[in-house]
Amino acid sequence: MVKRAESRSWLAVHSLATALMLSLALMPASAAVAEETAAKAPEMTWHNVATANVGGQAWSDVKAPFDRLPARAEKIVRPEVWTLSRDSSGLSVDFETNAAKFTVRWKLNTPELSFAHMTGTGVSGVDVYVQDDAGWHYLETGKPAAYPDNQVDVAAPRGRDGEAVHYRLYLPLYNGVSSVEVGVPAGAKLKFIDPPQAEKPVVIYGTSITQGCSASRPGMAYPAILGRRLGREVVNLGFSGNGKTEPEVATLLAELDPAVLVIDSLPNLSPELLAERMPGFIEIFRKSHPETPILLVQNPIYPTIPLKASPYEKVMRSSELLAGIYADRVAAGDKQIGLVAASDWSVDGGDATVDGVHPTDVGFVMLADKLEPQLREALKSKL
After folding, report:
1. Domain SGNH hydrolase-type esterase N-terminal: where (predicted)?
2. Of all helices (H) and strands (E), which one includes residue 141?
3. How far is residue 103 CA from its own chain's centroid?
4. pTM (2 decimals)?
5. Residues 304 and 213 grouped into a single domain
6. Which of 144, 165, 195 is the last residue of a domain?
7. Residue 89: CB partners within 8 Å, gap ≥ 6?
8. Structural domain count, the chain
């Protein structure tokens, strides 16, 4: 027994020595491979997105580069609204590059990468679209893997290497970013493209649904979908759980000069609060913009509406009240106001939401489908 134990001990020592010698022998080779890989990696030129004219950003006097409200709003709106305004929902940047491959890197503001009812790619990720003769086409998603730093490599579309290609980068919906950069190999060209200056933007004020909950990725929030379809800048002023139609927010909106104002805040309003606040909210904006089209959006018909009494009563009552507010304004001579009928998420088995309230990508497409025709008419001032 002693001899066997000694034999095993000798074998263990011998194996350890052999492994050590082998690893030492391989170290120079491994170092050489690492050096060779580093030498092959192209030198990158990084372009700071904060220097670009960010699409979907209505104010320039912001506290941080990717905020959605002006810095002074911190002392005007409720703290909850201000905090949500630091999320980069709806912000995007267009750029053109001839690089065969480029890298996007972004630094997140908060460590909560995802929610129980919303994916990390939607909450904290980025989306890249490419423009071709048919319009905009999805290309790549940057998946958030850590806090705060993330990056994604993006290859140019097949067959377009060396060609100057137009891209759009969408920023996170429910997280903020302190920095965003696009890197291209040394020698490749990149230039940022400003949003169209000749055309006024569409501004959408609303709730968590407007902000983008629960889109699978940033490009699938309905304001982003509408922006691509209409070929126009869209400003996303959705504030999750806090689209309370407050006069302070209406006063800020009145500072802007949109082509159309969309008010989509019913999901955050009780019928009583709707009746109390909506008429004054509209009037504050209308005093500064007598000819700007306003679209009032009825509450979505949630998939449980046919089955549960409580949401049915609230949703139906709110939509009826909004229709009455719309009718009163028309009767008072407002010719530039429209009413958008509710998007019905109860159809086809009710599969358009993740939790009965917040839409999936399917629900967001349904919302865009409902809004698009009236937005096009409003943009032609033919309500």
Report:
1. 44-189
2. strand 135-142
3. 19
4. 0.89
5. yes
6. 195
7. 68, 171, 172, 173, 174, 211, 212, 218, 221, 236, 238
8. 2
